[in-house]
Description:
Elements: E1 6-13, E2 17-26, H1 28-42, E3 48-59, H2 61-76, E4 80-84, H3 88-96, E5 105-106
Parallel strand pairs: 2-3, 3-4, 4-5
Antiparallel strand pairs: 1-2
Helix pairs in contact: 1-2
Amino acid sequence: MTTPLIDLKTVARSDGGLRLALAGELDFHTAGQVGPSLREFASHGYRSIVLDLCGLSFCDSAGIGLLTRLDRHCRTAGTRLLLCDVPPLVVKSIRVLAADRDLTFVVS
């Protein structure tokens, strides 16, 4: 039995928002595993989705690409995507790729 490299959990739901936690490695292989679920959550009409990334141990350009595409998908659906507890190395990668211009960071 193999251990999944990425884990997506629903942490809390309310009438207007959803809090999700993403843990593990977000890369070329795992972005395809969680992408459909994230897009489905974005289509449910929540006012906001808070994506807690404190459990990420790794994130490459494919993972950051997933986050920026998810942000666009959320905006189209009328939902705000908020990233919280982003590990410093992931923040650095996001900035290097200039994705911080589009993504919204919050402190939880």
